[in-house]
Amino acid sequence: MLVKNSWYIAAYSNEIKRELFARTLVGEPVLMYRKLDGSIAAIADRCSHRRVSLSRGKLIDDRVQCTYHGLEFNHAGECVRIPGQDAIPQRACIRSYPVAEKDGFVWLWPGDASLAADHPVPDYFMRSSPRYEGKTFFTPVKGDYLLAIENLLDLTHLPHVHPQAFEADISNFHPKVKVEENLITATRTLSDVPNLPMYIPAMGIDRVDRIQVATFAPGGNLRVDSIIRPVGSDDLSKALTVYIFVQVTPETDTTHFAYTGLYRDFALGNPALTDKLHEEFIEVVLQDTSIIEHQQRNHEQDGSDVKVIDILVDHASLAARRIVRRMYEQEQAQAAPAALQKKALAILTPEQAAAGTRLQ
Ligand code: FES
Ligand SMILES: [Fe+2]
């Protein structure tokens, strides 16, 4: 269920240079490069002539030249040169995608380009604000991105999958789950629980009160914000905040890319601590990756019609699946008439199509 009408992270900003960068994103073969003016172009990584990947070609100024017969395309996907002929048919043009750069990420809108401007690019302020420190980690995962969404919205897996990092069993602290249109919030309030082992050296306290807010917004924005306070303290000035995010970008139906970050608002100016937390966090991320890839293999081996059970803690992840399914079905319903119309136009002569003729 690939939802296309959403912003997804396509790459880190510093990965897109004056060279061709190809990646499959949300089922689309995409080619990106930085133009002479510094902005980013994203076009289909397919030549309209014989489907050769344009990423095998070369960048000439702001144009991409296909490696096979030399057709050239600009940043908007327009074919601007066909060797040996002057006329360039409209059909030679390929797709281009809306892109944006924010917080050190390149964001891509793989769906209906006319809708992109109405949707704000997600905010990962902790990456660009000096009030926070942390690092982001990139992982290609051989698993459906919905499994990653489920993983982060059900945090009762923490003591089982990550016993070294999360000792407390939180399964008896039931979250309050709120679903507002396309936003899910699951809030857990934990009182007098052990502090997480990775934070104890920086915070100097063993037991804490912790408010943990997990959120999901499509396409793949997942966050867990933790507000941590000394036990019994109402003094918010003593509260510390940790932001964990997992931004998932589906590659195909069965693979995705995860951008995972851990950022804090305390013990700033301490790069050694940042590195240590990052290393411990990577271990946690790889444990999640391992279980997601294992699930994917079992799903593929067993088939999709095998029934599974749902339990109380699945409330938020089931709501997320419903949101994704609803968006997916809406997109499919909208795409169907457009595909039919395209088919009808395809069997008209070019003159009839240009005159707006429709088949009865
Ligand atoms: S396949 Fe690209 S120019 Fe022929
Ligand atoms: Fe996890």
TrEMBL record:
<keyword id="KW-0001">2Fe-2S</keyword>
<dbReference type="Pfam" id="PF00355">
    <property type="entry name" value="Rieske"/>
</dbReference>
<dbReference type="InterPro" id="IPR017941">
    <property type="entry name" value="Rieske_2Fe-2S"/>
</dbReference>
<feature type="domain" description="Rieske">
    <location>
        <begin position="7"/>
        <end position="108"/>
    </location>
</feature>
<dbReference type="InterPro" id="IPR044043">
    <property type="entry name" value="VanA_C_cat"/>
</dbReference>
<keyword id="KW-0560">Oxidoreductase</keyword>
<dbReference type="InterPro" id="IPR036922">
    <property type="entry name" value="Rieske_2Fe-2S_sf"/>
</dbReference>
<keyword id="KW-0479">Metal-binding</keyword>
<dbReference type="InterPro" id="IPR050584">
    <property type="entry name" value="Cholesterol_7-desaturase"/>
</dbReference>
<dbReference type="Pfam" id="PF19112">
    <property type="entry name" value="VanA_C"/>
</dbReference>
<keyword id="KW-0408">Iron</keyword>
<keyword id="KW-0411">Iron-sulfur</keyword>
<protein>
    <submittedName>
        <fullName>Rieske 2Fe-2S domain-containing protein</fullName>
    </submittedName>
</protein>
